[in-house]
Write a structure and sequence with these properties.
The structure is a single chain. This protein is an alpha+beta fold. The protein has two helices and two strands, in the order ααββ. Helix 1 packs antiparallel against helix 2.
Length: 83
């Protein structure tokens, strides 16, 4: 989670710097800032994806046995309520 927040802050800082100075930038400087923003945005999205994957992997799996019409059914799922 800290990585996502750090990447977000870096991206926001770069956006602010670029927006505050864009009228004075040369074409080369503007392109530099655009590439920087693209890289920071990619890192931010990568951090979000990694966090989502880790949360999915760390989420406990629940296995339940359900008896329906005297037949036992084993059900494995992720969002089953605990009894």
């Amino acid at each position: 989670m800290e990585r996502v927040v750090a990447c977000w802050h870096q991206l926001q800082d770069a956006e602010i710097i670029y927006q505050q100075n864009r009228k004075e930038l040369t074409i080369q400087q503007s392109e530099y800032h655009q590439r920087r923003l693209d890289r920071l945005h990619g890192r931010y999205l990568s951090a979000i994806r990694t966090l989502a994957q880790m949360r999915k992997l760390l989420k406990p799996t629940t296995v339940a046995q359900i008896n329906i019409a005297e037949q036992q059914i084993n059900v494995a799922g992720r969002d089953m309520p605990a009894h």
